[in-house]
């Protein structure tokens, strides 16, 4: 929970035991830097804070309250052409924004796109 706003947050943690090489450590640093750089976009989860303790590095982010696009596709079975076009537009806008900032995401897939909330018209 964000102590300033009482808003629920999500935490992504990287175990320091798994950060074995300098490349592993640099990857986490790069992820934090990229998230800070892109946090002004409505379609990219905003990073609230990053900190570390003895066992892990933690990223505190805005909470996406609903499931991933992949899960919604499985539950729904399919999307209409119009609904799919809306989602595809958001995905393309995110890719474009990343590329404008010289960021290349190597794992674009429906499981990595989250909905902000459980409403049918939720932002992706």
From TrEMBL:
Against Pfam families, the record matches this protein to: Pkinase
Its keywords, alphabetically, are: ATP-binding, Kinase, Nucleotide-binding, Repeat, Serine/threonine-protein kinase, Transferase
The answer to whether the entry has keyword Transferase is: yes
- InterPro entries reported for this sequence: CDPK_Ser/Thr_kinases, Kinase-like_dom_sf, Prot_kinase_dom, Ser/Thr_kinase_AS
**Superkingdom to which the source organism belongs:** Eukaryota
What GO molecular function terms would the record report? ATP binding; protein serine/threonine kinase activity
- Using the record's annotation, list all stretches that form the Protein kinase domain: 1-124
Protein name according to UniProt: Calcium-dependent protein kinase
Give the organism, scientific name: Musa troglodytarum
């Amino acid at each position: 929970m964000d102590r300033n706003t009482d808003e629920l947050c999500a935490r992504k943690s990287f175990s320091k035991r798994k950060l074995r090489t300098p490349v592993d450590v640099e990857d986490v640093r790069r992820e934090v830097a990229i998230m800070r750089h892109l946090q002004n976009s409505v379609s990219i989860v905003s990073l609230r804070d990053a900190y570390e303790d003895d066992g892990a590095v933690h990223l505190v982010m805005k909470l996406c309250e609903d499931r991933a696009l992949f899960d919604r596709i499985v539950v729904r079975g399919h999307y209409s052409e119009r609904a799919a076009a809306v989602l595809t537009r958001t995905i393309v806008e995110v890719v474009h924004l990343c590329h404008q900032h010289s960021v290349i995401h190597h794992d674009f897939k429906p499981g990595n796109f989250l909905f902000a909330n459980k409403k049918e018209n939720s932002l992706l």
